[in-house]
């Protein structure tokens, strides 16, 4: 469950960094931050972890495509958010197969 808390913090970080004008961040990052924070905090189902994994991948791709001033910030956040989201999804999958057996 600690993965969800870290994804919540990363989502809040994306929202805060999206509001800093000098980073020239698009509203895309703020929206990803909001969705990532919500799904990161309430990681009860496997699909929510998958959504966070996809959001992390989107952060990496979009930060490279949008020619941001500081893309490294979003690449690192994307790697951590995506990795933890997918890790959480795989953990939920193992719990589901254990309960069914």
Q: Your description of this structure?
A:
The radius of gyration is 14 Å and the shape is elongated. The longest helix has 30 residues, at 71-100. It has one domain (2-100). It has helices at residues 2-18, 27-41, 46-65, 71-100. α1 runs antiparallel to α2. The protein has 101 residues and is mainly α.
| Tally of DSSP helical segments | 4
Average pLDDT figure: 76
Report the major sheet. Answer: none
Compressed to H and E, one letter per element, the order equals HHHH
Fraction in beta strands: under 5%
Q: What's the domain count?
A: 1
The low-pLDDT segments are: none
DSSP strand count? 0
Percent of residues in helices comes to: over 70%
What is the structural class?
Answer: mainly alpha
- Choose one word for the global shape: elongated
Q: What is the end-to-end distance?
A: 23 Å
Radius of gyration based on Cα positions? 14 Å
Name some characteristics of this structure.
0% strand; mainly alpha; 101 residues; elongated; 4 helices
Mind sketching the topology for me?
Blueprint lengths: L1 H17 L8 H15 L4 H20 L5 H30 L1
Q: What is the compact description of this entry?
A:
81% of the residues lie in helices and 0% in strands. It is mainly α and 101 residues long.
